Amino acid sequence: MELPYEHFFVRKYSRGNSYTLDEDFKDKKFKVKFINKYFIGICVLVPAIVIGITIFMLTYRPGSKLFKYRFEKPVPVKTLTAIYSDKILDCVKSSELCKDLEGLKLKYLERLQRKLKEKGVEIVDVDDLYCTSETMDKFCHSIKGEKVGLTTKELKTIISYLVDKKIELDDDFEVETIIKFKKFVRTFKKEYANADRYKIRYSYFRRNRVYIETFNSDKDRMYTLGYTSAADRSEVEMTGGILDSNTIKYVPEDDPLSSGYGQIKDPNYYPGKLFDWRDKGVIIPIRDQGRCGSCWAFASADLISAALAIGGGSKLTFSVQQMLDCILPQFRCEEGGVPLLGVRYAITNPYCTEEEYPYKKEDFICKQPNQCKNKLIMKMMSLKKKDLIEHLEREGPFLINMYADKDFMLYKEGIYRFRNCRRSNHAVIVVGHGYDDTHKAHYWIVRNSWGENWGEKGYFRVVNDFEYLDGTKHYYCDLQSKALGLKLK
């Protein structure tokens, strides 16, 4: 009720929300019922603020994953001086039109041919990107020694890239890059459809060479980068999930899993400096998923294989292609899949071995696996951080999700440390753990699915927990938030 009078005062309190008011009119008394909106608002607002602050403190408490995302500083990136930077032609610097570019290409060709021959590189004078005859093969595809051959068309394609970008030729840098590129092409059996594709991939490799060698010049680094199969890709291709992805539009319903173990006495307990299931003879050889986004299926299948072998069964290699073809239409090479559903499918359906349902590195129509006799009696377990060491040593490997960034794609060896924690796009399985005295770092030993030419023969080590020399904690990514384990029933 709105009161039109500006001057009044409370004389006495009667009952409820009613007040007796004495107005400055002569001997006139009246009672008005007054709803105190401010009082009601305060009663509602104060509890809401208290509840909000409580939720915030629990969610973003120091050490929690969201706290790290929002408040802790990411791993500081040391500023390193690049080992090399391109110099632009003088005609470009002076804003003049560069003339006689064809003549410049011939000069570059002559200089590079001379320098390559000094390095012992054979140049095959054919107008083709690849050597095809038997006489050329010994120069172009030999895997013995340091001799690396290339065709004149390859060399001209590289020179065309340099001139198109108006790059001043640095003989030593370019020759070393060409030699490394040829070894890379040979190692990973790369083939490019035409000169344009060759030019693009060489340019990415050239750029990544500078990045790799600049990073490796840091003496304080915990890991080393190398020329993996991703070295001819752009950063967008690497971080965009071109190689694999387990993040898709489909979101499965919540799946009730068995909980892990009871709380152990010390959450920082490490029963030894090194534990590795590879030493027990129960882990199958590393596999290579290729350019298909099937990491989720490889991680699921290899987790099942390890659990079965550790439980006393045969050491079998299980089918990845069956998971790709038969679970959901959304689970394709281009979009990836969900490891949880991969494991659930395998333990609730007849599951084939790799020999019975071989991997094709692409999508196919599901073949009903009626001929497959494998019936797996296993229980899925959702693991918490405090359970991981105990589960690893008692039951076997567990599956985790992670973010594969550019550095990870180019990882060669060492204890990997993520610079930023992001949503996952890659699935892998942990097969062991260890401790590094030099860096005071606990680490996981993790199995990947990118072949033995990647990382430490297909595996990598990644920080689990570590400290500075003064005992304060480092910032690191907690990869165990959605760990999945298996246990034989």
Report on this structure.
The structure is a single chain. This protein is of the alpha+beta class and 489 residues long. It has two domains: 127 residues, no CATH class; 252 residues, Cathepsin B, Chain A (Alpha-Beta Complex), CATH 3.90.70.10. 32% of the residues lie in helices and 16% in strands. The strands form three sheets. Strands 6, 7, 8, 9, 10, 11, 12, 13 and 14 form a nine-stranded mixed sheet that branches. A three-stranded antiparallel sheet has the order 1-2-3, with no helix packed on it. Helix 4 packs across helix 7. The radius of gyration is 32 Å and the shape is globular. InterPro entries: Papain-like_cys_pep_sf, Pept_asp_AS, Pept_cys_AS, Peptidase_C1A, Peptidase_C1A_C, Peptidase_C1A_papain-like, Prot_inhib_I29. Belongs to the peptidase C1 family. Keywords: Disulfide bond, Glycoprotein, Membrane, Transmembrane, Transmembrane helix, Zymogen. Pfam families: Inhibitor_I29, Peptidase_C1.
